[in-house]
Amino acid sequence: MLEVINDFLSGKVLIVLIVGLGSYFTIRSRFVQLRHFFHMFAVFRDSLKGSAGQLSSFQALMLSLAGRVGAGNIAGVGIAVTLGGPGAVFWMWVTALVGMSSSFFECTLAQVYKRADGDGLYRGGPAYYIQHGLKLKGMAVVFSILLLVTYGFAFIGLQSYTVTHSLQNAFAFDPQHTGIVLAVLLAITFIGGIKRIASVSDLLVPIKTLAYIGVTLYVIGTQIEHVPAMLETIFKSAFGLDPAFGGLLGSAIVMGVKRGVFANEAGLGSAPNVAAVAAVKHPGAQGVVQAFSVFLDTFVICTCTALLILLSGFYTPGFEGDGIVLTQNSLAAVVGDWGRMFVSVALSLFVFTCILYNYYLGENSLQFLTRNRAALMTFRGLVLALVVWGSMQDLSTVFAFADITMTCLAFVNLMALALLFKVGMRVMRDYDEQRRAGISQPVFDSSKFADLDLDPQAWPANPPAAANPEAQPQGVPATQR
């Protein structure tokens, strides 16, 4: 019954809503993700700079990538190719393209309505823009509860099971012992709060991402002469024009879109929670950074996995097996048996950072519901216990339930995005106007948005001057600009 409900909600209704609204946001914003595409790299470079005592935009990006770049990039892509053929990759790209605009607006709104937490840091996300933007406290509470249940508990248990059993298969490690070690490492990280979580993500996310991309690019490089033909196969299969995969057209669309949605998480309402923690000069800058995150997740990492599988020679139409096995065997077919171990180690790093990300989502939702310190410590204890318990239990039923709650979570977020879209457009236009005026780093002036419920500590009425002096009014002494 859970599988039937989940298949209808996440496999049909949610896909239509996410792709439909993402397309609407894309058209209404005049393709914001394409207009700012090259600007993304400049914003990414500027994001490396942070303010003392605050989290930088880069740290928020690494934290969001900790969640976006996970098992879905290895197992999810393998499942999509297995069930949908090479054409599924094309529809993953399409989903990511429209998802970049959804991510821009949800993360921009998260920045607009973020709140200072009293420790020099910020908190925000869909619950905050629902409460302060829509004035719907009950809807915000529902979102927070769904987020806490889905990411704070269910997905953490499932990921614990995934990583411990992957290491058991590769190195014969005892799952219970691995679960205990994992819980200890997580406890050390949790104690330091969001700053330590961000610091660990800063270290592990680039390592896991670059190492995985490097190995997959090596495989692609060894088969470079076959890449043009494989890309042609992907495009033909996406429209049912390749005879070998003609019968998979429907599956290619469904699996490509579905796996794309759950790989990059654009529109689901999870990434805005970490996007809000960054100290930035303008909400639009964080929207651009998070759109870049979707690009990196799908167009780079998922594509690397797909080409690894399709070029290895191991994959054949009608392959039966899970996505992790397909990826492991595809890499092993090119580099030898150590490829299976590499995938297991990569998956372990992916899952570990995903657990950190999921924990923070749970903590953020709990902090929205209550600031009670005892509640936070209880939550941390439950998470660590769940990691150990999950390492020994097959939580597939729990995962099916979590898929349903995550779909409900996405419905609430998408509804809020649609209702707050005009606000998002106002902020985007302000960002665009400053860039057209020659300001490389636009600054958010909250006095222009006095009708919105903004936190004066997060967005003071007199913001610092814009980045480039040449964009300042002429005739004003430099010391007064």
Automatic annotation (TrEMBL):
Region (Disordered): 454-481
TM segment ranges: 12-31, 65-84, 134-156, 176-194, 291-315, 341-362, 374-392, 398-421
Domain of life: Bacteria
Compartment(s): Cell inner membrane; Cell membrane
Alphabetical UniProt keywords: Cell inner membrane, Cell membrane, Membrane, Symport, Transmembrane, Transmembrane helix, Transport
Coiled coil spans: none
Recorded GO MF terms: amino acid:sodium symporter activity
Gene Ontology, cellular component aspect: plasma membrane
Membrane topology value: Multi-pass membrane protein
Amino acid composition bias (Low complexity), ranges on this chain: 456-474
Family under the similarity heading: Belongs to the alanine or glycine:cation symporter (AGCS) (TC 2.A.25) family.
Entry protein name: Alanine:cation symporter family protein
Lineage summary: Bacteria, Pseudomonadati, Pseudomonadota, Gammaproteobacteria, Pseudomonadales
